Amino acid sequence: MEKPSSVSRRSLLLTAAASSLLAACGGGGGGGGFSGSGGGGVSSSSSSSSSSSSSSSSSSSSSSSLPDPATAPALKTHFAANFKVGLVADDWISGDTTISALVTKHASSMTAESVMKANPIGVSEGVYDFSHADALVTFCQANGIALRGHNLLWYQTSPSWFFDGDATAANYKDIVKARLVKYITDVVTHFKGQVYCWDVVNEVVSDDASSNYRNSQWYQIFGKDYIDYAFQAARAADPTVQLFINEYSTEYPDKLGRLMAIVDDLISRGIPIDGVGHQLHNNLSVPISGVGDALAAVEARHLINHITELDMSVFSDSTSTTLSSSALATALQTQALNYRALFNLFVAHPSVQSVTMWGTSDAHSWLNSWPITRTDYPLLFDRSANPKSAFWAVVDPTFVP
Ligand code: XIL
To answer: In sequence order, what are the residues at sequence separation of 6 or more whose Cβ sits closer than 8 angstroms to the Cβ of residue 10?
Structure first.
């Protein structure tokens, strides 16, 4: 069921995605939806002049009443006293002048969307393809941008060679453990000094109450022990890089409870962990108070909070493909208020040291192809890479979306 073949990985991605979306829609029993707490003085003025009325259009999603993009402050400067601001791309960015300009203006952090995962880096046992990841490192270093390492172990991108062999053999676990430790040792060593943190394990928490741990192939072989091996190997290879556990739906109490039980277990046994990454893939029903609860839970353990994969779909289900122009305009207003509330929350928590949007412009978001192909509008910049209402709501408390 959890075999990491490319076919089953794809279906698992849909499974994880569906459950995340379900949670985003309230299925996780979360904190009651948008609190509106960040929108002091915000009126309900219409943005019916939005030029984004066609959801299949590739044109701008900006309202014509938005400020001149040339006056937009750099996010990395605006939030310099609070946290790093991250955007996400792969090494294609070097050949895209529009997105390069966007990232170099606004980002003090980057995350690789794909090229630092074990698939593609781990070609076969002891054989690595660092070419794309190294190109992204070069881009970051040339532009003074710090790099998050994402990620060392994710069940969806674990190459099948990790699990080769006779699973009934007495030494099978030792062999697989040795492969995992070698992979993490080699990769962390390769990027030593080039990344400021690693998502050591990604999505290891169960989506249901039957267990705290996801029933992945890793878990089926080792129980929870593989998580220890991953953190210990990462720390041994780099004594100073920050080590994170990264998870989605942490803003829902059930999932947060299971995550923190795992974190407490790691801490109690002296496993080296520095922080928790909150993916925060969401939609317009993002439970702001639940996000606050998640940040507070991590702070209570004296760990660092990173927001690692923030986006906000305008769709509330996984089947709709279009919104009417008026529905989209309303959605973008709500999105702006939600983003303002979230960033106000992040600023209020000094434990939040990095906030990354999962993409760059709305044209470069995984949500345009997942969970189905559709035109989504989840980020702070429109398809022309200009600031949306959500951007202005975040940087200007007086802006009325
Ligand atoms: C996604 C990328 O955005 C896609 O392009 C890729 O096809 C699959 O992975 N949680 C994570 C990210 O931790 O690595 C995922 O990124 C999105 C969900």
So the answer is: none
pLDDT at position 64: 57
Q: Which residues is 282 bridged to in the sheet?
A: 312
pTM, 2 dp: 0.88
Q: Is the dihedral of CA 396, 47, 313, 132 positive or negative?
A: negative
Sign of the dihedral through C-alpha 247, 248, 253, 258: negative
Quick one: pLDDT at residue 364? Answer: 98
Specify the residue with its C-alpha closest to ligand 1, atom 15.
113
Residue (of 266, 277, 175, 252) closest to 213 by Cα position: 266
Contacts of 103 (CB under 8 A, 6+ apart): 87, 89, 93, 110, 143, 145, 360
Could you tell which of 10, 91, 113 is best to mutate to test the pocket of ligand 1, judged by most ligand atoms within 8 Å of the CB? 113
Where the chain has pLDDT below 70, the residues are 1-64
Q: How far apart are CA 253 and CA 134, in angstroms?
A: 38
Tell me whether residue 113 is one of the annotated catalytic residues.
Answer: no
DSSP 245-267: EEES-TTSHHHHHHHHHHHHHHH
Q: Which residues contact 50 (CB under 8 A, 6 or more apart)?
A: 61, 62, 63, 64, 325, 328, 329, 332
CA of 365 to the centre of ligand 1 (A): 10
Active site residue 309: yes
Pocket of ligand 1 (CB under 6 A): 113-114, 202, 279, 309, 366
